[in-house]
Every structure is written in C-alpha cells, then in structure tokens.
Design goal:
The complex is a heterodimer of chains A (408) and B (346).
Chain A lengths: L1 H16 L8 E2 L7 E8 L9 H16 L7 E8 L4 H14 L4 E3 L4 H14 L3 E2 L24 H15 L5 E6 L2 H16 L1 H4 L4 E7 L7 H9 L4 E5 L2 H13 L5 E4 L6 H8 L1 H4 L3 E4 L13 H13 L9 H19 L2 E2 L1 H8 L5 E2 L8 E2 L11 E8 L2 E10 L4
Parallel strand pairs in A: 1-11, 2-3, 2-4, 4-5, 6-7, 6-8, 8-9
Antiparallel strand pairs in A: 10-14, 12-13, 14-15
Helix pairs in contact in A: 2-13, 3-4, 5-6, 8-9, 9-10, 13-14
Chain B lengths: L12 H12 L3 H4 L5 H28 L6 H18 L4 H23 L4 H19 L5 H4 L5 E2 L13 H24 L2 H11 L1 H6 L4 H27 L1 E2 L6 H14 L4 H28 L8 H15 L3 H22 L1
Antiparallel strand pairs in B: 1-2
The chains are: A alpha/beta (408), B mainly alpha (346).
C-alpha cells in the first residue's frame, strides 16, 4: 500500500507548498513547473466510436490526479481529440497536437491504422507515441521506432497461446476459425496459424479445416457459423468483436454445435458478450485475460478493485461499469502516471521514453495478480503475460499459471 | 443556380488576385517564427485537396445534375494508384497524378454506363454501394500484395528540390496549389465551351437538350468520367501529403463530407468548391473546439458532442444561406449593386 500513502502525502505536500517549490526542472515543449501537456487521438465518432470509452476513462483518471495535486506538483493538461478512426484525420490531429498545441507526448492513441499513419512522423519529430491502444504486434520495435511503445499483450502472442492450449488438451483437433476481416483478425489468426503449423508433427498439417470471415458492417454471422459447423470441426476459434462474438456463441448453441470454444480477449466481456449470448450457451469457453473481470464478485474485496470502484463512482460515473475499457483505461493511465512520476523534474521527451523503457516489475492495479510490467531499451512490450480462464457459471474463472510471451 | 458567369468572357481579375494571394501564403513561413507554421501549411494542403475533390463532385452534381455518394471510391482509387506507383514502381510522386487521373477517369466512365439507366435517387443509391464496397475490396486477399490489405501502404514524404529552400510542407502546398489551379482552369474553360453548355442543358432539361441534338448518354458518362478523374487527382495528392493510405481512410463518411462541402460551399459555383474544401477541414475541428469551450465555460459535467454542434452549424448555414456560402456572397453582391443603382436613380 505504499502507493496510497505516497499519493496522500503528495497531495498534502502540494497543497502546503503550492507550485514554487519545484522550480528549475528540465523541460521539453509541453512541460513546465506547473503543467504537463498530454495529447491523444481517439475515435469518439464514426464506426469505432464505442472505443471512445477509453479516452473518457483516461480523462477521468487525470481529473482525479489533478484533484489530488497533480504529478510532482504539476497538473495534467490532457487534450484528447476525435479522429473518427480515420488515419488522415489522425495525421492532421497529431500534427496539431505536436506542432500547434506543443504537447509533451501522445498517450494511448487508438487504432492500428491510425497509429501506423503517424508512427513515422512521431519518430521523425522525436515525440513519444506512448502506450498505443492497439494489440498489433508491430509496436515493440525500438530498433526502428524508438519513440513508439505498445502496452497491452499483443494479438499474435495471444493466438499462439490458444494454439498451444489446443495442442495440449484436444485430441485430433479439427479447427474452425471465424475471423473479422481487419488487422486485428489477421494478427490473431496469423500467430495462431504459425503455432499450429509448428505443431504439425503432433496434430497434423491440416488441423485447421475452415476459416470464415465477416466484415464489421455485416448484420449477422449466422451463415458463417453454419459453414463452420458443417466442416465437422471440434474446435472453434472465435476471432470477433463483441457484437459478433455474442451472435456466434448463440448461433452455435442454437444449431447444436458443441466444439471446444476459444474466444479472443477483445470480446471477453461478460456484460457485452456472454450475457447477450446466453450464459448457458457460454459455459466452458476459454479466453486469455490480463485484467480483472469487474463483474466477478471474486475481486470485490481486493484493494485495487475498491479503489477502482471509488474512482468510477466519483470521476467516471456516466460510463457503463461493466465495460472493460474502464478497467484498461484506468490501468494504462496509472502506468503513464507512474512513468511521469519517475521522470521527476526531468520532463524531457528523452527522459519520458527512458523511464517508460525501464519499468521493472511494475505492479498495476486491476491487472491480474502476478502480471507485472517490464520493459528495457530492447523490450518495448510492457505486458507480456496472460492467464487462461474459462466461463464457469456467470463469470470467468482463472485456471493454470501465467503464460508469457517467451513461453508461447 | 446562377451560372451567368459562364457566358462572360475572360477570367475575372478578382479570381486571379485570389490565386496569387494563395500562392504568397507559404512565404509567410520565411518571416514567421511560429513553430506551428508547417502544421498550418499541412491544413492548407488538406483544404486544397478537398477543394479539388469537391470540384470534381460539383462538375457532376452542380453542373450536370447527377447525384453521387460514391466519390470516396474514386478518391481511394486515385490515392491507391499514386501509392502503388510510388511504392512498387518507384515513380516520382508528381508523375503519379496524371496516371491517377486517367485511371479514375476510366473507372468513372465504366461506372457511368450502368449509371445511365438510373436517375436521381436511384443513381445516388447505386453510387452509395460503390462507397460501401471499396474499403472492403481494398482488403481483398488477392490484391493485398499491392494494397497492403488492412495494413495499407506507407510512403515516404517527398523532399522539395533543394534550390527552393522550402520546407517539405511548404513545397507540398505548392504542389497542391498547382494542381488546384490547373484543374480549376480546366473546369472553368470546359464549362464555358459548347460542351459545358451542353452539360448544363442536360441538367436543366434533359428532354429539351436531347431535342436540340445533345447526346445525353455521351455527355452523362463523360461528365462522370471527368468528375471521377478530378477527384482521383485529389486522392493521389492526399496519398502524397499524408504519406499513408489505408482502407479506413475512404469510408462513406468521406463521400458525405464531399457532399456537405459542396452544398455548404455552393452548388454549381467554382469559388464555392474552395469554400467547401476549407469548410470540410475547419468546421469539424472547430466543432470540437466549440464543444470544449462550452464545457469549460459553462462548467458542464458532460461532454457536448462535437457532431451535434456540427449538425447545428450545418442547419443554421442551410437556413440562412440556402445557396451555400458562395451563393450567399453572390446574393449580397447583387443586393449591394442594386442598392447602388437605386441610389443613383433617386
């Protein structure tokens, strides 16, 4: 509980001493004795507007930080702009934030295409593009992009972990894949296929019997599920976003298809997927998790859950509490606050990157017990472990040990 | 729709002066200390690009009376043509623009044939499917080797020739401006020619036009082709200035922005196209600033949705300036001259 006391002490100190005591730091544009300016692009409108919940959670977290006196006495000025999930707009807004608004860095801009569009620019300008909100596997590449860093476990690795689990638990697997036709789907399936191919001696070269795709704009995936069932598969790898995940699980149950089901973490939400699909249809589904499922009463007494709940009630009360964006948003905002705290009075862009790349066993609230953040000058993947869990009753139940990137 | 200017001879002094002013803007960069100057140049590029796209759409909707919701598709086609030529063919960026124009002209012509059978709302629906289909087609596996699939194609931003001593953004602004001037000049001349009058005759009364011996099918398809070609150039420029193309950049939303830009700027007005381009870039951003400002000023607990503000702005504009901003200017000028004349008569 050192964190709590430090924060209390800090807010007390800030009220007593006010600003002048910490004069004389080293600053890049966007930082001063009184303020740290952080920019972000986020799809508050357009096809992906549901993800906007992330940005609102970040803003709510920084509001709390500011009310508690800021970070090392400096208030966070958080500018989060709507790019509508359109890459050219992201470029325009990133340039506005960097060149006109002069932010210290960009924090958790969302979307793989959107981040790809600005990656070169950010690295040319030497402005950190920190903890990008996408699970693509390409963000941890410090040799070529030393100013870009991811945060969440990447989709490729997650796909590999499922493949491993299938090999260990299913005899003669015949795998059917339902994939969303976008970068997320490609990454999930790419890693999975690679791992399955590596197991060809034990499970056969053609373990994957069918792969069906759908578009985000499709109304349903019913016909795809029928196709998958008819292939005679006994494993269902469900690479979908929440709406379609619910449809797929429900439809599979309706037509009496009972394969071993693997559901990607993106859709591992009780509120948005399992309940609409019918909990009775979802029993036994397996996923990989790194954050706590807030609908699970198991966590109700955990200290970090209580803190999170208090924060939700006070600062983010308009959000849907069962939405996982509020948990990841909270955790990633905590991470960046830790990085800034450790920067001390050296708030240069170089130092922000240096601190972000030297996390050592950082424990972040609302992550599963045992998951710690580690980075180094050559390792730009902060969260590298997940735990498998399955649906039991009304919740996810963890089983097995931590599975990490290297092991996969 | 006031298109009487099409009958006048010569290019107006005002418009020449106007383009000269636009050409002088980047020079401010040599005296300005502002670190955000390059960002403003980038905004200028976007405005010019959207103005060109709106020009293409205006030729079709404003001057030929055919509706299209599918121009984001031609914009995408132009962008990908430029990107693929630069990335795989190693072409210089400027040489890709004429190709983008030709490819999009051909695509527009091909789409124009079936579109002939469709009028008004039906054509709008047919082009709508084009806008919906293209982002998905770009992800199609068989061509993913060229289009980069969902990942898109990353490009290098071109460097300006050394002797100009311009920054890359200043230089690209000039590239966009040159393309804009050329295309506006072409359209200006086209509209004042025999063919241009035929285009407008088709719009105003197609039956009468065909009685006069105008080949409706030919004019409609060619108008579609040219319109698509112009929008394709805008797409190519966008690929060059953004240095990245991806399917999500070319959604139906983009087509709608063109249409909004067109209506707000002024249907069948060439200056209106420029106004429309500026509007598309500026107003979305300012809707967000107004939203932030309202939240801060009135200490609101909730965010004011920027898109609602955008909608209100649009409604107000349409209510007070039904002929668009350029149309409003024209009306004001007529009113002013009439007042002057009446004053002299008394």
């Amino acid at each position: 509980m050192t964190r709590l006391t430090r924060r209390t002490v800090l807010s007390g100190a800030a009220t007593l001493l006010a600003a002048p005591a910490i004069a004389g730091g080293k600053y890049s544009p966007g930082a001063s004795d009184t303020e740290i300016k952080i920019g972000q692009t986020m799809p508050y409108s357009g096809n992906a507007s549901a993800y906007g919940a992330n940005g609102r959670a970040h803003a709510a977290y920084f509001r709390m930080i500011n009310e508690q006196g800021g970070i090392n006495g400096r208030k966070i000025n958080f500018i989060s702009l709507d790019d509508g999930y359109s890459p050219p707009k992201t470029v325009e807004l990133a340039r506005q934030l960097v060149e006109r608004d002069q932010v210290l860095f960009l924090f958790a801009p969302l979307g793989t295409q959107c981040n790809t569009a600005i990656q070169k620019y950010m690295n040319q300008k030497k402005v950190p593009q920190l903890f990008v909100a996408t699970g693509a596997s390409k963000w941890g590449d410090p040799a070529h992009f030393p100013w870009t860093m991811g945060w969440q476990p990447d989709y490729r690795t997650e796909g590999m972990i499922y493949a491993k689990h299938i090999k260990q638990t299913v005899k003669n697997p015949k795998i059917a894949i339902l994939r969303q036709n976008d970068d997320m789907g490609n990454d999930y399936v790419g890693g999975f296929r690679e791992q399955i191919a590596a197991f060809k001696d034990t499970i056969g070269a053609d373990a994957i019997v069918i792969e069906a795709t759908y578009e985000v704009t499709d109304p349903t995936v019913d016909s795809q599920i029928l196709q998958l069932k008819n292939s005679g598969a006994n494993v269902f790898y469900n690479v979908t976003t929440p709406k379609f995940a619910a449809q797929a699980i429900k439809k599979a149950a309706e037509i009496g298809w009972k394969p071993a089901q693997y559901l990607v973490n993106v859709s591992a939400s009780v509120g948005a997927v399992l309940r609409p699909a019918g909990l009775e249809n979802a029993q036994g589904i397996i996923t990989a998790q790194y954050i706590k499922d807030v609908t699970d009463p198991h966590w109700a007494d955990a200290a970090d859950f209580k803190e999170w709940k208090a924060w939700m009630d006070k600062y983010n009360s308009t959000a849907n509490p069962s939405e996982s964006a509020n948990v990841t948003g909270y955790a990633v905002a905590f991470t960046v606050a830790q990085v800034l705290k450790r920067c001390g009075d050296d708030l240069t862009r170089e130092n922000v990157m240096r601190q972000a790349a030297s996390m050592h066993d950082l424990e972040v609230p609302m992550l599963l017990p045992g998951i710690k953040l580690n980075t180094s000058a050559t390792d730009f993947y902060p969260i590298e472990s997940v735990r498998l869990s399955h649906v039991e009753g009304e919740h996810w139940t963890l089983f097995g040990d931590l599975v990490s990137r290297d092991a996969a | 729709m006031t298109t009487s200017w099409a009958m006048k001879r010569g290019v107006g002094v005002t418009s020449i002066l106007f383009w000269i002013v636009l050409a002088l803007l980047p020079l401010i960069g040599f005296v300005s200390e502002s670190s955000s100057f390059d960002y403003y140049m980038f905004m200028g590029q976007s405005m010019l690009i959207y103005a060109i796209a709106v020009l293409g759409l205006n030729l079709l909707i404003g001057f030929n009376g055919q509706i299209s919701l599918g121009h984001s598709a031609f914009f995408a086609l132009g962008a990908y043509t430029a990107a693929i030529l630069m990335n795989f063919g190693g072409w210089p960026y400027w040489a890709t623009l004429p190709i983008a124009a030709v490819v999009c002209f051909a695509a527009g012509l091909l789409f124009g044939f079936p579109a002939l059978k469709l009028e008004g709302h039906y054509l709008a629906l047919a082009t709508f499917t084009l806008a919906i289909a293209v982002p998905q087609l770009l992800k199609y596996k068989a061509i993913a080797g060229w289009t980069g699939g969902v990942g898109g194609v990353l490009l290098d931003k071109p460097d300006p020739p050394e002797w100009t001593r311009l920054s890359p953004d200043q230089w690209l602004y000039y590239v966009c401006l040159a393309a804009a001037i050329l295309l506006f000049w072409v359209v200006f001349n086209l509209l004042r020619s025999r063919n241009g009058r035929a285009l407008m005759a088709v719009r105003d009364h197609s039956m009468a036009a065909s009685t006069m011996g105008i080949d409706l099918a030919r004019y409609k398809t060619i108008a579609f082709g040219i319109s698509a070609g112009i929008t394709g150039v805008a797409g190519g420029l966008s690929a060059i200035t953004v240095a990245y193309v991806a399917p999500d950049s070319f959604t139906l939303q983009l087509s709608i922005s063109f249409l909004v830009g067109l209506v707000v700027g002024g249907i069948a007005s060439l200056p209106g196209c420029l106004v429309g381009g500026v509007f598309i870039v500026l107003v979305q951003n300012s809707a967000q600033s107004i939203s932030d400002w309202m939240k801060a000023t009135f200490a609101l607990r909730y965010d004011v949705p920027a898109w609602a503000i955008y909608g209100v702005l649009l409604l107000l504009l349409m209510y007070f300036l039904p002929a668009g901003i350029a149309g409003g200017f024209a009306q004001a000028r007529t009113w002013w001259t009439m007042r002057g004349r009446r004053g002299r008569q008394q």
